[in-house]
Amino acid sequence: MPALTRRMFCALLAVACATAGARLAWASEVLDLDWEDLIPEGDDKAKSAYEALGVISHDQISQAPAESGFAPVRSDLDGKLVRIPGYVVPLDYGSEGVTTFLLVPYVGACIHVPPPPSNQLILVNSEVPKEFGGLFEPVIVTGMLGTSASETELADVGYVIAAEQVAPYGL
């Protein structure tokens, strides 16, 4: 798996530091997000691509839009305590579990297909290693959201989360 770049590490560290001071003050103000909420108003191209995909099956994945570079993000969400469901694509893991992963909106994103736009990808860092049952099981992540552009070997990423909680998502 790819190692963290210095830029990714600095972005995650900044979000983690901001999280530590704000954790108690915002504990009751968790903002529940859907993936469409991460697309800024007025970005009709991204909204159209999102709406065209909807919930997709595995055989439709090759139709996902190939975006290069960084898509616009919602800066008003920077520093907010959020909760968002998605799927895990592990980036950094050891014998105890995964500590860094991409949270993606659908199964198969970033694996053998063009990645979604960067504003539809979240780089997640968890201080506590997590074990996951597989790539097809949804999770829900709660933590401080940051709007820090990062590059991974798999995709360009528009958001980061310092995870306070990662749990199975009950459908």
Strands, helices and their partners?
Layout lengths: L5 H17 L8 E2 L11 H10 L27 E14 L2 E8 L17 E9 L8 E8 L3 E2 L4 E2 L1 E10 L3
Parallel strand pairs: 1-2, 4-8
Antiparallel strand pairs: 2-3, 2-5, 3-4, 5-8, 6-7
Give a short summary of the structure.
With 171 residues, the protein is an alpha+beta fold.
Describe this structure in words.
This protein has helices at residues 6-22, 44-53; strands spanning 31-32, 81-94, 97-104, 122-130, 139-146, 150-151, 156-157, 159-168. By secondary structure, the protein is of the alpha+beta class. It has a single domain (6-168), classed as Beta Barrel (OB fold (Dihydrolipoamide Acetyltransferase, E2P)). It has a 5-stranded mixed beta barrel. The protein has a two-stranded antiparallel ribbon with strand order 6-7. A hairpin with a 4-residue loop joins strand 6 (150-151) and strand 7 (156-157). The radius of gyration is 15 Å and the shape is globular. Mean pLDDT is 79; it is low at 20-26 and 54-67. Residues 1-27 form the signal peptide. It comes from Tropicimonas sediminicola. This is DUF3299 domain-containing protein. Keywords: Signal.
Order of strands in the sheet with most strands: 2-3-4-8-5
Approximate strand percentage: 25-35%
What string gives the helices and strands in order? Answer: HEHEEEEEEE
The CATH superfamily bears the name Protein of unknown function (DUF3299)
Tally of distinct domains: 1
Which structural class fits the helix and strand makeup? alpha+beta
- Shape field: globular
Counted beta strands: 8
In CATH terms, what is the fold-level topology? OB fold (Dihydrolipoamide Acetyltransferase, E2P)
CATH architecture field: Beta Barrel
Q: Helix count? A: 2
Radius of gyration: 15 Å
Uncertain segments are 20-26, 54-67
Mean pLDDT: 79
Largest sheet, if any? 5 strands, mixed, barrel
- Terminal Cα separation, in Å? 29 Å
